[in-house]
Write a structure and sequence with these properties.
Blueprint: H1 2-12, H2 14-41, E1 47-56, E2 61-73, E3 77-79, H3 81-91, H4 94-115, E4 121-125, H5 128-132, H6 136-147, E5 154-159, H7 160-164, H8 167-180, E6 183-189, H9 196-199, E7 206-209, H10 211-214, H11 221-237, E8 240-243, H12 249-258, E9 262-263, H13 274-280
Parallel strand pairs: 2-4, 4-5, 5-6, 6-7, 7-8, 8-9
Antiparallel strand pairs: 1-2, 1-9, 2-3
The chain binds ligand C2E and magnesium ion (MG) (3 copies).
Length: 287
Amino acid sequence: CSDLAMYSAKNEGRNNFQFYSQHLQANIERTTAIEAALRRAIEQNELRLVYQPQVELRSNHITGVEALLRWQHPTLGHISPVEFIPIAEDSGQIIAIGEWVLRTAAKQMKQWLDKGMLLSVIAVNLSALQFRHPNLLFQITKILDEEGLPPHYLELELTERVAMYKPEEAIAIMQTLNKKGIRLSIDDFGTGYSSLSYLKRFPISKLKIDRSFVSHVQEDSDDRAIISTIIDLANNLGLMTIAEGVENEQQLEFLRMQGCNEVQGYFFSPPTTAEEIERMTSWSADV
Ligand code: C2E
Ligand code: MG
Ligand code: MG
Ligand code: MG
């Protein structure tokens, strides 16, 4: 978009250029404001987690949740993680924020399990910088120990891009996490540039089929083909599959027919509060 804006700015003269540079200036100001505000977000209690159910299709039960970060700032209002995570990543603040996310998610999961809720996993998104941080394993181990959560209840979601950057290094990091018993999955699968020879070496347990394929399942036969190919690939590599962004029954039925293991999306529930998750999930007393 910025190249295009620059191109049209150059070609359509001074007014457009001025417009473009004002636009750029506004962006820089917003980024700076967000970065400054983020610095206080944790201590001011502005961050919270919401949880989105992951439904196993074989049993129709909620078997896991994905923790998703929310930020409500007193003057800037609600800011999407799509906007602030990259800023936190550039400024390094993602390390402290990511630690807060892991701590909060582990604490919540431990509470749920102690209450007798039948959940097998809580998934947490990991950014590139967190994943490459030399202290990652130590930090996570410490959190799991302190919260008393056995490692197999935690799943870390890495995007394809993060996993495929310097893949030999990535494999080594994944192996240390995997040896500890922590589960790994590849998020937004199909949108990056996975090398299949590396994919087979990743000690991961799950592929998350990107929402962009799921959303066009009804009208686009290419997207249907891509989904069934991803599911075949996962089956052949011994990996589980979960589809993101399932919004209607037709999408669900297609995924079920293809043998997808789990689904996540607005059709079942948007990301929601811990209390709401407790109302939706089965308890050991129910069965
Ligand atoms: P993601 O990990 O791929 O998360 C899925 C996103 O899709 C979430 O957006 C979720 O609210 C949304 N979603 C779920 N079901 C549906 C659906 O049926 N339809 C549609 N249209 N959307 C659906 P959200 O919460 O805004 O998060 C966006 C991205 O921000 C996440 O994508 C993830 O990459 C990042 N993110 C969120 N929380 C964290 C975090 O704690 N740490 C890091 N590093 N990244 C995070
Ligand atoms: Mg995710
Ligand atoms: Mg995703
Ligand atoms: Mg996605």
